[in-house]
Amino acid sequence: MKNATIEFIGAFFLTFVVAIAVGGGIAANLAPFAVFAVLTACIYAGGHHSGGAYNPVVVVMAWFRGKISAATMLGYWVAQMAGGIAAGLLAQTMPSLTMPLAAFVPDTRSAMIVEFLFTSLLCFVVLQVATTEKIKENPFYGVPIAMVALAGALSVGTVSSAVFNPAVGAMLVTVGHFALPTYFLYCGAQLAGAILASVLFKFTNAGE
After folding, report:
1. What's the pLDDT tens digit per position in 114-127?
2. What is the three-state SS of the chain?
3. Global pTM?
């Protein structure tokens, strides 16, 4: 229960910052850095408790890796999704911080490609810096994970909104930025990216 609470807190603040940033609460060119900052902080705050995933596909990947049980995976998933929805509901009550978000209709092919690629990279980096025995308990793991989100937001934000996380997607559905069919397409691309990351990790870390 304690670890699920940590996952809820981290997912809530991550998605709330995304909601404020996307909604124009700060300058658009600074939005990715705000997300980078809060994600880095939350990873370090919760990493030694729950692992600091804050992302359902990362949790699925951790289960594939054998780091958590199926019951823990489901508990984290519920907590993360609840955090994303709660952040979206709260953001909607704060018009002084956020503008109503227009529905986003992406170019489906391009959006699926970048969501697949960057979610795969995100999960691969998590596996390499946070789960390998060679660098177990290293002090730098939070920064490279958050840097993938930063790089993705800066490079492909206009293509797919740089989601890479079903909890963030749940917040975007809550505030009306995504339609449900778009959300489920994103979830499929993200899950496929996580599976690819797991396969690549096993291939490049046979001893693990």
Report:
1. 999 999 999 999 99
2. CHHHHHHHHHHHHHHHHHHHHHCCCCCHHHHHHHHHHHHHHHHHHHCCCCCCCCCHHHHHHHHHHCCCCHHHHHHHHHHHHHHHHHHHHHHHCCCCCCCCCCCCCCCHHHHHHHHHHHHHHHHHHHHHHHCCCCCCCCCCCHHHHHHHHHHHHHHHHHHHCCCCCHHHHHHHHHCCCCCHHHHHHHHHHHHHHHHHHHHHHHHHCCCC
3. 0.92
